[in-house]
């Protein structure tokens, strides 16, 4: 059963390809779409007709450039609907509304450093961010066709204790169930690593590739794994927890409670730890998180910083070689603030460690670099995932009938129980 | 392109499902096949017709047991063809001929400890094993419909130097090209880890599962990775080299030349190393390979052996937790002689280490055990892979026309250059 795909699943996959080709490419003729997607001209034509009826594809003028007769250029109709991507991170929740062309039309952040003591508080913060983003987008909430929620997986700043606390996964599930009824569109969820994987498939280094790995480097680290062009979710939807694989048996204590995890060496606190070992009195140790990373970047000539970066690159290269050995991907792309800030400084030594450590050929043939997707990668990934979900046959079939049901208003959330709760949600 | 599958690919996948259901289940009615495979009755009926014409399916009597009208039971016709699986291991080459029901009909081993100094010698040994296996199978070589060659990947006993030698992969490719023209059927290749993955999909713990990992524990260790029911090959066909991921930064020297690899702790030489640390004068250190593993098994009550097994189980559990964290599989199955001999002794402590180390839920939901496939797992995996390859539309379409081309004889190999070469190939 796992190997056979029904014709409606194939049609779903083909439809996603056509939409993705137009979202990414901007405009295309039917012939160009067939070439880009590898689908037959007849299939493309049928899908275009269906998507036009659903209001998602519009004409974009006539192409006279070719030698043949003029053909109609197509584009995504941004007004055809909107999609919401929500990034529940450790210190903030970001909601971003995109139009159907995946152009950002409204975004809002709410800080949640203190709110993690209570699922209620987090749910309020989340719905507040959503309401603000929808408001800024200027479209009625009822135009939302889908919402995607990126939820932290193993490690988080978390109901005090995180993944090592039994029941953390249940808390996350509870948050999901708490907010679901209050969102004005069907909800899909994934962990942030998987979300970033979706961004890379649509817009980044994994486009058109079969096997790819997207490694996120920030406070936490992890990997979005793409096999046969799809993001691997795993049996309990936590695939990609490369950050908590072992780099050093009985090594540094990781904030997940285990010892020797990759994250304890190449997560931002891990890099601080390394600098502290190199020079315990270094002034950059006063800084944390992004400020610390920025500080490293501004001081690469400082010998202690240079040594720290060399050690970090070695740790990272060895840890990446593990994922390369296991998955042998075509592409490995680095993302997250550490990658964006320090990628150029780290990459040569990372490459050297990979070449030394990964199995023969796997490193030589690997396309390694820093991701071109640098803004809202989790929110974008969740929005495109919700778009894919929407595009499945049944949701779209409902859409092609004229919409007669009243557009639901965004529900008013009960007033916050705590005076320090984030701003009240717009009604 | 990677996401869309053509209708002929779907038909290929469906055909594989029907054949596999009959190979594994023995007999079934069309209705039962539809239920087992999830295919429509019409699809099953079409495929059965096609496979009967190709001589691969025969009637197996009438089923009167049901309440409805009697229906025809079907089975694979073992005489419909044969398939060859070849296991190129470090100390031997084994060739096994299976009939179309994947029943072994002939097998032969040739030792190759000394032959690894020359590709010519290995090629001779390989073709000698093949000729003997075909001869013992008692079917003309021309009845072979496919051959599968499992070739060592990263580490081997190797043209002196193995994977750390640049060009090892080229040597393996050279061996493949050397023997290909002399085999009497189309050849597919994979590494042994991937071969074992195919065995598990057909006959083992991965049957009907989406994501599964088969971990091979012997002299070398590695993993066959199954995602969405298919074996992951990787960009340079070396996915699964988990044995050379890092367990301890700057740890034990591995025979691949790197430091701290998983294999250096849980491969057989690694377990010997651990026993040597526990008790440098232990008598079991006189033994090697299978004899050493058997010796451990026979002496589990010995305190030094017990401590060695406890340490090994901990190393193994931590190393497995890495693959569980990254892939979050439904199933993890252990195979290879260490697993068969020591699995029952190791599993409780491995489970404990996994529960402690792997991300929440991933270990709790994991189906962990020792593989039920215990004989010829590489050769069987390569034979079923060659069967799958044969079943693809074009090969089968050629078959449904009556065969009129003369059956090619197995070629005579040029006499061995060295007097110690294996026995000459049967003409
Ligand atoms: Zn950790
Ligand atoms: Zn190694």
From TrEMBL, chains A, B:
Name of this protein: ROK family protein
InterPro entries for this protein: ATPase_NBD, ROK, ROK_cs, WH-like_DNA-bd_sf, WH_DNA-bd_sf
Pfam families assigned to the protein according to its UniProt record, in alphabetical order: HTH_20, ROK
Cross-referenced PROSITE patterns: ROK
Entry's family note: Belongs to the ROK (NagC/XylR) family.
Domain of life, per lineage: Bacteria
Membrane-crossing segments per the record: none
Organism (species): Microbacterium oleivorans
